[in-house]
């Protein structure tokens, strides 16, 4: 139906006026006066103004994009409109695509499963909006729907990779009711958060943030380590972002374990840095990089001195 614009109208439809006849009976007049007053009150209520949403070309990609944009600006009514529209139009196809998979699609084929990816993403966005509004049970239910029915969905990040929507939903369920938040899931964000909670002796937080960074980026970190034969010079060190952040997260985790006197676990973590990420460097805000493996060797010596093993 070209040329037709689809909209959602939300609010009350109120008649502009009522025609009153002077000849009506007293009882009829009183009834109509009450109706008129009720209508006038409704018309004065802000919620009576219709809200119009533009669904564009109605593609799942467009609806998911509009949902993200609405979430970013805190327009939760718009999130509901766009996300639920995507779900209502494409969920059947999404479930079909999920059933056709036995594992996550590789990067070069992931876009083939457009409905699965976009519907799961819209459930995720919808859940985030509901959490922000304090609608916790509804948020939990939507996150669980992703895990139960759309487990192989992947969401494209404009930075150049896919992230697993069900894993994101699981993370959200795990942190509901806590102060923990994985933010944008970048290695930098997770590392900064790990340092922050380490400074507060929040060992649970350290485990959450460091292990999430390691889970997401260790493969890339190992690739970057393998590409090096020596430490990168300062002007190029940031290019090895995964290597640096993953090794730093292992170091932070080791520090937390060492503080708790969990010596054997700490030793295993510091050994991992030395053996697998020897060219990692950690940026100090004061203006220099320090070598994570060198610092890890120092901690291993400390463990030997304190625990004798």
Would you kindly provide a written description of the structure presented here, covering whatever features stand out?
The protein has helices at residues 26-44, 60-72, 76-99, 114-132, 136-149, 165-175, 187-199, 203-226, 241-259, 263-276, 292-307, and strands spanning 154-157, 161-164, 281-284, 288-291. The strands form two sheets. It has a two-stranded antiparallel sheet. It has 309 residues and is mainly alpha-helical. Strand 3 (281-284) and strand 4 form a beta hairpin. Residues 1-48 have low confidence and may be disordered. The N and C termini lie far apart (75 Å). It is built from eleven helices and four strands; from the N terminus they run H-H-H-H-H-E-E-H-H-H-H-H-E-E-H. Helix 2 (60-72) runs antiparallel to helix 3 and helix 4 (114-132) packs parallel to helix 6 (165-175). 31% of the residues are buried.
